[in-house]
Design goal:
19 helices, six-stranded mixed β-sheet
Length: 552
């Protein structure tokens, strides 16, 4: 049988323990036809076969981006990027140049800010006024949990005098009785997005609801283009499968329209986002989404939840007090009883659950809920997920494996690695928590499944940079445990473990990277170069379902 595509001369990492290495792969009709030596595979060359010589570079299963936000990520590609900038003067110059280049933007957005860009000083509306005063300006932190805005933005959205919000959300008020410009969590800064017309791309995160009023045909077209930008960006980075971590029916419907147009470049899972103000019967909508979207390319079946916020703003929920704020542990977004009810019902419906859990208190609350679901419904292969786990309590470390829960973690988020600043997170946790902070090695050694991701647009979509971070990770202090991964362990966490997390077996029990033609060819062999150079490697060919979705 002749193949449609053959990649030969590669360092093939199969993720198949029975055949871990190969030189060549043959693809036909969206499936992997054969994996083997060059001599074996070249026999399948026919007159119409495309042959690619990898010249010794790594050929891997396609990357699984197991935690990201493609709609918002696509929108952020049109915003000013502040990553790596320091000091008010540099930021002011960049913002003012962006304002000149975007004369029609209702709100000027700047993304990727860190909490220490001003060397210990704080952003407030007055500083932003000095950058741009006559148009709304919003500076968004890299984690998308805080937004700093100028006075104009507060005035046009009616937030200058403050507003009563739900638990875990805050409009920070000044001594003058007016908002300082710091808006913590989505309920606080949601009105800015609504005013800007950016709310549809964040609805799956902010409310879990649908656009109201219904978008016009022109709006739908614009939103499809936004999502396509995000999908194309992922394909450029070798990603063939996405676990979106926000969602609603509108997002799924737009993806279906993109698929019908022939422009869907990645497989994607979209959850129903359950918020703490919802009643439990809202899970009927999650079941409907699951039953409606069941394909290999677009599917649902997941419930996404936020249990806490982030440590930088003291909105992460801890077991014990913050190291730099005695007497304060943070406030969880769900009571234990409320989360248990949600976990039991979602599990009963056969839905997978994924919960944002930064602090060790949030991790414990979520594991308690998963245990309650197992007790109520009996054990099943649920693969419920705990997202981020920036710190875990030693008492809870063995519970992940015991409950069959997946640890979804992000190597680029570690303070001090890549573009992430060391403070204030290290100071918030304190030395007593450092040994189990971002502790993916400890979690893996406990027997739990560990899946890696970026959380784009929180961190850049760059699996190779994530692998570099996982491999080159060093302890914050010499006596702390080594949490680093080997290259193959990190690559597995971005491929095989991601497939496991999405229940991607076929009827034979094989995982998708073993039979679907989802592949990425890199520009070098990542096992033979220096670990600190892995981030310089890039995809040269991305193949999803046998179709080339990106090529240099």
């Amino acid at each position: 049988m002749h193949a449609e595509l053959i990649i030969k001369g590669a360092s093939v990492v199969t993720m198949n323990p029975d055949q871990p290495r190969a030189q060549a792969v043959a693809v036909t009709k969206g499936k992997i036809l054969a994996v083997g030596s060059d001599a074996d595979i070249v026999e399948m060359i026919g007159p119409a076969t495309r042959v690619v010589d990898a010249k010794g570079a790594t050929l891997s299963p396609g990357f699984v981006e197991a935690h990201m936000h493609v709609f918002g990520g696509g929108a952020s590609l049109g915003h000013l990027q502040l990553t790596g900038m320091k000091g008010a003067a540099m930021i002011r110059a960049a913002v003012q140049a962006h304002a000149l280049a975007q004369p029609d933007a209702k709100v000027l957005y700047a993304q990727g800010a860190d909490y220490d860009m001003l060397d210990g000083a704080a952003f407030d509306r007055h500083l932003l006024d000095s950058m741009v005063a006559d148009r709304p300006l919003a500076i968004v932190t890299f984690d998308h949990h805080t937004m700093w805005v100028n006075t104009k933005a507060l005035e046009v959205t009616g937030l200058l005098q403050g507003k009563t919000l739900g638990p875990g959300n805050e409009i920070v008020m000044g001594a003058d009785g007016l908002a300082t410009g710091e808006l913590r969590e989505v309920e606080a800064f949601g009105p800015i997005d609504v005013y800007a017309g950016e709310d549809r791309n964040s609805l799956g995160l902010s409310t879990g609801g649908e656009p109201n009023p219904a978008p016009s045909d022109e709006d739908r077209k614009a939103d499809r283009e936004t999502i396509k930008r995000g999908l194309d960006w992922c394909a450029r980075h070798g990603i063939t499968s996405i676990h979106n971590m926000d969602g609603n029916l509108y997002t799924l419907d737009l993806l279906k329209e993109i698929e019908a147009e022939g422009d869907l470049s990645c497989r994607i899972k979209v959850p129903f986002h359950f918020k703490n103000f919802m009643s439990i019967d809202m899970l009927e909508k999650a079941s409907m989404m699951h039953e409606t979207y069941t394909g290999d390319w677009i599917n649902s079946g997941m419930v996404k939840v936020f249990c806490d916020g982030v440590s930088e703003t003291y909105t992460a929920f801890m077991v014990d007090d913050y190291a730099d704020r005695p007497g304060f542990k943070g406030d969880p977004l769900f009571s234990q009883a409320q989360f248990n009810e949600l976990a039991i019902e979602a599990d009963r419906r056969g839905l997978q659950i994924a919960v944002h859990s930064i602090g060790d208190g949030a991790v414990r609350r979520v594991l308690d809920g998963y245990e309650a679901a197992r007790t109520a419904n009996g054990p099943r292969d649920s693969r419920h997920r705990v997202e981020h786990i920036e710190v875990i309590h030693s008492d809870d470390l063995p519970r992940l494996a015991e409950l069959g829960a997946i640890a979804s973690m992000q190597p680029p988020h570690v303070p001090g690695l890549l573009d992430f600043p060391e403070e204030p997170a290290r100071g918030r946790f304190g030395p007593e928590r450092w040994h189990l902070s971002f502790a993916w090695r400890s979690v893996k050694n406990s027997g739990a499944h560990v899946v890696f991701a970026s959380d784009w647009p929180v961190a850049r979509v760059d699996v190779l940079a994530g692998i570099q971070a996982a491999v080159t990770r060093t302890p914050w202090e010499p006596d702390l445990p080594d949490q680093s991964f080997t290259v193959l362990e990190a690559l597995s966490a971005y491929t095989l473990e991601g497939a496991y997390a999405e229940h991607a077996e076929d009827r034979k029990g094989q995982l998708k990277p073993g039979y679907l033609a989802d592949l990425v060819l890199l520009s070098a062999d990542i096992e033979t170069i220096a670990p600190q150079e892995i981030g310089t490697v890039s995809p040269v060919l991305t193949i999803c379902g046998g179709r080339v979705t990106y090529e240099t």
